[in-house]
Design brief:
This is Carotenoid 1,2-hydratase. By secondary structure, this protein is mostly beta strands. It is built from 1 helix and 25 strands. The two termini are 27 Å apart.
Length: 365
């Protein structure tokens, strides 16, 4: 049954990535200027072809055990507007599909587990409100405009968490637009909630644990983001103990170079955002890891420098194997918790998450 669901999901998502450019079918493209307004923009934007709400975080249980988590909800538009008239009037008709991913990194137990869901916009299985943050996929959900609440339960992991923002939304890019390639429409609207105080329960290993910690939320939407010569990206989010945060994405071409549109943001303790051009950040991999699941070779461990911010840090994966392999749609990627330490002294400086796509096959958006 799970295999059948994955095949069906791959076929549906292929409709959004293998056809003509989404804008040609009437979807909107990200254009400057875009003025974000909250809480409105926490909600869905079905005028754009793709959208995701992405949460990662670091949790600690009362017994001292530490966990990393990812919970991501995706929305893909099959076509803009309402479904076309049909003489059959099938209850399965709908213009949106919703995959979702859940992952947990168990530092002490040295385990990484993940699960996924998939739903069409039909029969109440999946939805994303345009009025408020209210996204659901087959019993997993996100709600609230602040505090945020989330619920996801799989065979091995259950999350029931509440997150309270410690800073305002951080808007990435310039004039509300985050460029992804050279073409004028290869862009998205992208913001983050970079410091969310988190508390709730984690169900894992046959027990229900009270946990607290810190989370990060990304929300991004667009229609025509990557070009054919781009293979994927390396994305970094750092939450430092001095209450600064860093986001940086490195867009890779199939030839192995970085695109000029790669960029980042530095958020100061008060929440002010500074744009970082590609060359303002230096990232060098210190090792590699070969997946036993897909055979892909990923970078593993990094030195990251932002000279203008006085940052020279090492990023060390909590576990080498944090790959979500062969998810719905056939995509495999590495998404994992990392520790951040000072390069010179080795002193702990914070925590982070890293996302690596395109190493197990080029990705398209």
């Amino acid at each position: 049954m799970r295999r059948l669901a994955a095949i069906c999901g791959a076929l549906l998502i292929a409709c959004t990535t293998a056809a003509a450019p989404p804008a040609a079918h009437g979807f909107s493209n990200a254009r400057s200027p875009w003025r974000f307004a909250f809480p409105r923009d926490h909600a869905a934007h079905p005028g754009f072809a793709s959208e995701w709400w992405y949460y990662t975080g670091h949790l600690r249980a009362a017994d001292g055990r530490r966990f990393g988590y990812e919970l991501t909800f995706f929305r893909y538009g099959l076509r803009p507007g309402d479904p076309p008239p049909s003489p059959l009037q099938s209850r399965w008709r709908g213009n949106q599909v919703y995959p979702a991913h859940l992952a947990l990194t168990d530092e002490v137990g040295r385990r990484f587990v993940y699960d996924e869901r998939f739903a069409r916009e039909a029969l109440g299985m999946g939805h994303a409100s345009t009025r408020r943050l209210d996204v659901a996929v087959n019993g997993w959900w996100l709600r609230g405009n602040g505090p945020f609440r989330m619920h996801a339960l799989s065979n091995e992991v259950g999350l029931d968490l509440t997150q309270t923002a410690q800073k305002p939304p951080a808007i990435h890019g310039r004039d509300g637009v985050s460029l992804k390639a050279a073409c004028a429409t290869c862009a998205s609207h992208y913001y983050s909630m970079t410091r969310l105080r988190t508390e709730g329960t984690l169900r894992y290993g046959g027990a229900t644990l009270r946990v607290d910690g810190i989370s990060w939320m990304d929300h991004e939407f667009g229609s025509d983001q990557l070009q054919a010569d781009q293979a994927g990206w390396d994305w970094f989010s750092l939450q430092l103990d001095d209450r600064r945060e860093l986001m940086d994405y490195r867009l890779r071409t199939k030839a192995g170079t970085l695109t000029p549109e790669s960029s980042g943001s530095l958020i100061d303790p008060r929440g002010a955002v500074r744009y970082l051009a590609r060359d303002a950040v230096s990232v060098d991999a210190t090792g590699t890891w070969k997946s036993p699941h897909t055979g892909a070779v990923y970078p593993s461990g990094w030195r990251l420098q932002v000279p203008s911010a006085g940052l020279d840090v090492m990023l060390t994966p909590v576990l080498a194997d944090q790959e979500l392999a062969n998810t719905v749609g056939g995509v495999s990627y590495w998404e994992g918790a990392v520790d951040v330490t000072d390069r010179a002294s080795g002193r702990p400086l914070g925590v982070g998450y890293v996302e690596l796509t395109g190493y197990a096959g080029a990705i398209s958006l």
